[in-house]
Every structure is written in structure tokens, then in C-alpha cells.
């Protein structure tokens, strides 16, 4: 099970009615946060997301609205008596940015590991989740993330029995571990069917609509994209500022064959993003207009 | 006239129901902000305080809850098309702290002047306001501020007439300027009575109750002090963490002969600071329990 919370839905600057865009994902006790602008710790608290359990914070890029809340969040995690290490991942340059921002958090009761991800890095593992970064197109280096929970194939009872594998080893094989018994080695492949569809969430904000989003976001259960402006007439402005308008995000969702599209990162100039709902759903029917604190749980389909 | 807004009233960390402690003061088109923690820009917007007009930001000390919102606020002031310079004042070390925090705001459409104030510096002038820092007692260097609007003495018509000062020069003398006419020099002292009581606001948070507060805060119209804890039993904890409890602040207000005491900087452990109102008013009757966005206008008494 993957529990998602769209913590905030604003872009550029935080408003009394709209916190900055951020995503919280929890899976088997491990939590991941994507982006942490000013006020994200307030929004997390309001949404009832435990920030003490955040093991990994992924940063998309270094514009203030995506990272300015990081020192405050880490301090509050410390005040909540967290002692386990926290990893912060983000584009190259992250160490330098954090050295600056962390000047007001010189002492924390836990270790902070910094992982600068290159152009396309190897996935980060967090419990059952695999997190893969991919490049976006913004004024400054920016990256999106896919979060996947892979699912092993079905356990084939007959095969296990025919190979005479002791029953107490079955659960290990189901978990993907290789086991030995009576001098013989058994691998998961011997007793598992083909891998089944797992869970997949893709997150990309602050970008023009590049193919990498459809490629990495392919068949996502939820594709979370920015909708900086609602009006078609703002396309030029979006291009100039390297952002996306609602309809561009909707076309990407279609291209990626995503199950559901969540729009977020609304410009402060958008008073009510729901105004554009009907128009955007004509392009991609399963579009959801994001709201602060919106939650969903994803489960494996039987 | 001095317009005050207690922007937030929280201490340590921002809560959905309580922004971090900060004070906004406006006088004749110039605005001053004391402290800027995470979310202060949201609280300013909520309270309807124009942050575009902030000319001076005074920082009490470098704990995150007092300064972590500064880069975001400056960026938002830039987005609001401010082009006039902004001065940031605070304890020694301010340059180093700002170099860190401003790493996410490398380009602003206005100049930022940094003023590191020594132990006790000369007052900063901002329009009609004089801002004086004074030392507090906290775990790290911390300072309070008095904001005064001095008021010249009454204009003595008979004196001006007997000195044969041309009438068109009277307003200059009233403003405190020295003027010349027919080869003679006239100073304000020649035509003004003794200086009258001006306006005075004193602000001190994150401190033990030191004499300097009563001394610098003497006869303040409003004395704004921290009330980190309400219960008397938390005195030891307050001492240990170099904070004040409500009753200590009330005794300081009495010692300073302040007109009114505003309490702020409540610990997140205080669900409702009004619980302690009756008890604290027994010590100092004119105690006001601070609330986010609380406003007051001070005028010269005729």
C-alpha cells in the first residue's frame, strides 16, 4: 500500500489559502517527501502527515518555493525526537545549497546524508519503494521523480512442491530472497510467475512538457504535474517562464497512458483552479484538480 | 501615528493555528518588521500588511523560528515589484547567516543593506521612527528593540512673533530644522516648548527577564514580551531554556511602568494562552494575550 498526500498545491509563493506544492508518500512505515518550500511543515501538520517518519526528502530544484522550508522541517523533526538519519536527494549543487540553508540548523539529533543525483541516477531504495529521478526542462536544473513499488510474480505452489523446497523457506522466496536447503540453492525465479504490475506515482513540476515525463511516467497510477496557468492564452508566458499550462499537462497524461492526473503548483494568479476543470477533462478525463491535503491510498490490484 | 500588527504569536515552530512571532509597524509610509520566521510572509498577507513597503527588517537572533522566512519574504517583495533598498539589521554574525540563507535568492530587484548592530548601537532612523537595539539574555546573542516616534515641544507663537521670524519659516522650525532670515539664524529651541511625550513600543522575545528590558522599555505605550510558558511550574524549564513565563513578563511590565503589555511567542505546548489571562492580569492588569494579526494604532496624546 502506498499512501499519498498532496501536501500543498501552490507555486511561486505560499498563500493563506494555499501552501506550496509538496508530496508526501508513505509505504510500510517509511515516508518520502518531495519538495519542501516555506510552510511545508505547517501543511504537513495540517494534513496529519507524521513528519517524524520522513526518511528521504527529494528536491526537484533550488528555487525558494521548493526548498526554503527544509531547515525548519529538519529542526521540527529533531524536536519530535527523531534520531534516525535522513537522506536529502536533489540535483547537483545540493550540498552547496544545503550548506547555506542549514546555517540556522547547526545541530540536529540525527545525521543528514546528502545525495546529489546526476543527470539520471540509479534508483534510491526506501523500504519497498524505488525512487528514480529524471531530467525536466526549467530555467535551472530540475528533476522529476517516479516512485514505484514493484510487485513480484505469483508464488507457484506446484513448482515449489515439485522442487521439494521446505515450506518454511517459501516466504523468503516470495520476498525475492535466494535460499538454500539440503545443499541445494533455490532462487525466486524458480517458484515465481512473471512480475505483476506494481504501483507507480510520477511527479514533475516546474518544467515545460518534455517527452521524458511521458516516458518515465508511463502507465503511472497517478501522474502529478504542474498546472501553472489555466488559460490557453497564457501559453506564451508559460513558455517564457518554463512552466506548463493545464492543457499541456493533460496531453502529457494521455501520452503517458496514466491512470489519473493530479494537477498542482498553481500560480498565485489562479484564484480557483476548478474553473478550468471541465476544459482540461475534455483532453484527459481522469484529471483531478489538486487541493491542499488531498489523499489517496494505492493498493495492488488482485 | 504608529500602526502595529502582531503578525504571529508562536514560538519554536509554526503551527496551522499559530504563525511564528513577528511584529509589523508602519509609520508615515515606512514599514518595519521585527523577525521573520517560516511562514511570516503568509501571516503578513493574512493580516493584510503590505510587505512591499517594508524598508527595515530587524532580527532578534538567529534561531530558525526568527529568521528562516527571510529569503522567501524578500523574493515575494521582489515579485511585488519593490525596487527600493531594504535594510536588514541584527546581531553580529548577520552577514554570515544571510550569506547562507540567501543562497536561494541570488537575484533580487532591489539592494539589500546589512547592518550588524553591536552590543548597543546608535539608533536606526526610519522616517519618523528611531529604532534602538538592546541586549537580551538567551542561549545565543539576542537583542530587543525599542521603536520611538519622538514628539517636538509645542510651537510657541509669541516667541516666534517676538523674534520676528517670517511666518513661512515656522513649519520648518516645527519640524526641527534650523532656518535663516535677514542674516539671522533661528533654531527650533528658540520657538519650541519642552519635548512632549512621543510614542514608544518595545519588543523583547527569547530572553530571561533582564533589567535591560525594563530600562529600555521604560514607559512604553506597548511592551511586547515573550510568554513562552503559562504555568508557574515551568519556571525551571524556562530558566534552563532561557525563556520567560507569563508572570515574569508581567512583573517586567510593572517594573517598566508600561501602559500595556502584549504577550507573544507561546510554546507549541500552550493550546490556549487565554487560560492564563486572569492570573497574569493580577500582576499587571493591562496585559493583553497576543493573537495572530492583532492590530492597534497609537496616536500622540493631545
TrEMBL record, chains A, B:
Q: Which cofactor does it need?
A: Zn(2+)
Q: Name one Pfam family in it.
A: Lactamase_B_2
Report residues binding Zn(2+) 2. 65-66, 206, 265
Copy out the cofactor comment.
Binds 2 Zn(2+) ions.
Which CDD domains does its entry note? RNaseZ_ZiPD-like_MBL-fold
Q: What class of enzyme is it?
A: hydrolase
Instruction: Read off the SUPFAM superfamilies from this record.
Output: Metallo-hydrolase/oxidoreductase (SSF56281)
Query: What are the binding positions for Zn(2+) 1 in this chain?
Result: 61, 63, 138, 206
Keywords tagged on the record = Endonuclease, Hydrolase, Metal-binding, Nuclease, tRNA processing, Zinc
Question: So where's the catalytic machinery, residue-wise?
Answer: 65
Matching InterPro entries, A to Z? Metallo-B-lactamas (IPR001279), RibonucZ/Hydroxyglut_hydro (IPR036866), RNase_Z/BN (IPR013471)
Q: Where is the Metallo-beta-lactamase domain?
A: 196-266
Describe the reaction catalysed, as an equation. Answer: Endonucleolytic cleavage of RNA, removing extra 3' nucleotides from tRNA precursor, generating 3' termini of tRNAs. A 3'-hydroxy group is left at the tRNA terminus and a 5'-phosphoryl group is left at the trailer molecule
E.C. code: 3.1.26.11
Recorded GO terms, molecular function? 3'-tRNA processing endoribonuclease activity; zinc ion binding
State what this protein does.
Zinc phosphodiesterase, which displays some tRNA 3'-processing endonuclease activity. Probably involved in tRNA maturation, by removing a 3'-trailer from precursor tRNA.
Q: How does it assemble?
A: Homodimer.
What family does the entry list? Belongs to the RNase Z family.
UniProt-recorded name of the protein: Ribonuclease Z
Its source organism is Emergencia timonensis
